[in-house]
Specification:
The chain is 43% helix and 13% strand. The chain is of the alpha/beta class. It folds into three domains: 143 residues, Rossmann fold (3-Layer(aba) Sandwich); 256 residues, Aldolase class I (TIM Barrel), CATH 3.20.20.70; 60 residues. It has a six-stranded parallel sheet, with helices on both faces. Helix 10 links the parallel strand 11 and strand 12. Helix 16 packs parallel to helix 18. It is globular and about 70 Å long. The chain starts with a strand and ends with a helix.
């Protein structure tokens, strides 16, 4: 049996880092971790071929070779997914197509007529049933779904040997699923539940070993939606094990996602920094307390968020953050307030999006009852679209959103944030290693940003300031400068903002 594992293409967006990864000669930011995990669950006797459309095109030879195609996708990959399905059916009508992942789980009714089998929810629960039916009677059901959450301790090590790691800027690992919080707009709990489920320490270390043994010596992203959902277990078992594992292993550095209550636990932050974590993404969302109440973001309420961010940065963890505009309690003053907050915080990588309502969330159900759902969302946080009718009016919201993006990613304000961050950031050690890719990125940046780019004055001023005040953080300055180039390209191409 020949199995083709297809990962649809991402559009050029905030997290694609399309224009940044070219500086280090990479083709995509992250590997398709879900598909690699599915591949590990398939019979060993089956031949497996991965085609990540972010890396290369799907060829006619790939299609002719395959007996079964597995497609895993998120909402943002919908356009590419639809194109892939059409191509497969046109080129080889007899081919069997299996769909799974968040896109198909949320919007399965749309694919009933074009997908042969739908493996919904968590594959560790539903895929074995499909495989059993395929083996026993050769006539699997149309849909496999379950309300049961999987035991992550039974999740296999992803099949890394079908991947060319050199194509990617970072590797990925998942330690847990689920989040103890219940934000109205978030579909994480709809997909994975409120109770964080976590792999054993041995599993996590085995997965790190698998990545390392396959030759990886760079960044590893813990994709957990809330890495500290089970703080006690992370503190007492996971982080100490990672600290021990990293001894003698150069080049490995981690980043992840967490909730703002990370700032309340100095020991936890210190352990993360010691384990090799240097950055964390946090959903800040908004400085407006009424909007935080509206979306049930209780963990962010009644806090000094600026001070929390500084505490995390001073512990050696760069804060990247998400922000949202378009809540019912937002007024036109929110746009200026968001800019002021982002600039004051020193959050260099600030993802600001218009509120969207994913299917399955409490927000979607509430707005559907109010007749305010406009259709499907794109899944792109920063394309200036939404699938809801905002109370302030669409024109005001879109104009204000573009005003935010034009300001925070203007050359002057962006480089100001870099400097503010560098003043606050206090790593116990700079984990990034100098290698040929980083040297190449520096040389390219000097030409594209320091000579050709409009930001050249700010670029060189920031480099000189860093070398004279924070020389150990010089790699961060170059990385941020390159990220800024990417973010401005996204603003120009996707939003029509000339900055």
């Amino acid at each position: 049996m020949n199995i083709l594992l297809l990962y649809p293409k991402f559009p050029d967006t905030f997290w694609s880092f399309t224009y940044a990864i070219k500086f280090i000669n990479k083709k995509a930011a992250y590997p398709p971790l879900g598909l690699l995990t599915v591949a590990a669950m398939l019979p060993e006797s089956w031949a497996k071929r991965l085609v990540d459309l972010n890396i290369r095109k799907l060829s006619n030879e790939d299609i002719e070779w395959a007996d079964i195609v597995f497609i895993s996708a998120m909402t943002i990959q919908k356009k590419s997914t639809d194109q892939i399905i059409s191509k497969l059916k046109n080129k080889k009508p007899s081919i069997k197509i299996i769909g799974g992942g968040p896109l198909f789980t949320s919007e399965y009714t749309e694919y009933m007529s074009v997908i042969d089998h739908l493996i919904l929810n968590e594959a560790e629960v539903t895929l074995p049933n499909f495989l059993e039916d395929l083996k026993n009677n050769g006539n699997p059901k149309k849909i496999y779904s379950s309300n049961e959450y999987c035991d992550l301790k039974k999740s296999p090590i992803p099949l890394w040997n079908i991947l060319n790691m050199d194509d990617y800027a970072s590797m990925s690992i998942q330690a847990s699923r689920g989040c103890p919080f219940n934000c109205e707009f978030c579909n994480v709990t709809a997909l994975f539940g409120h109770k964080p489920r976590i792999k054993s320490v041995k599993q996590i270390i085995d997965e790190l070993n698998a990545i390392y043994k396959n030759g990886w010596r760079g960044r590893v992203f813990f994709v957990d939606d809330n890495f500290i959902g089970n703080k006690k277990y992370i503190k007492t078992e996971v982080l100490p094990a990672i600290i021990e594992w990293r001894k003698g292993k150069k080049g490995i550095v981690f980043n992840t996602q967490a909730s703002i209550n990370l700032a309340d636990d100095q020991e936890l932050m210190d352990l993360m920094a010691k384990a090799g974590f240097d950055s964390v993404f946090i959903g800040i969302e908004t400085p407006e307390e009424d909007s935080l109440s509206e979306c049930n973001k209780k963990q962010n309420k009644s806090r000094n968020l600026i001070q929390d961010i500084r505490n995390i940065q001073r512990a050696g963890l760069e804060v990247q953050a998400g922000f949202i505009v378009g809540f019912d309690n937002d007024t036109p003053s929110i746009f200026k307030r968001q800019i002021e907050f982002i600039q004051k915080s020193g959050i260099v990588t600030a993802m600001v999006g218009i509120l969207q309502a994913p299917i399955g969330t409490r927000l979607y159900e509430r707005l559907k009852k109010e007749g305010r759902i406009l259709g499907y969302m794109t899944g792109d946080n920063v394309d200036g679209t939404t699938n809801i009718m905002p109370k302030m009016g669409m024109d005001i919201l879109l104009k204000g959103y573009k005003y935010i993006m034009a300001n925070i990613y203007s050359v002057e304000n962006y480089y100001k944030r870099i400097k503010r961050f560098l003043k606050e950031y206090q790593p116990i050690k700079v984990h990034e290693q100098i290698n040929k890719n980083r040297i190449l990125a520096f040389l390219k940046a000097n030409i594209k940003l320091g000579i050709i780019g409009k930001e050249r004055r700010h670029y060189w001023n920031t480099i000189i300031w860093t070398l004279t005040h924070k020389p150990k953080l010089f790699p961060f300055t170059i990385t941020f400068a390159i990220y800024g180039y990417h973010f401005r390209k996204i603003c120009r191409n996707n939003l029509g903002i000339k900055i």
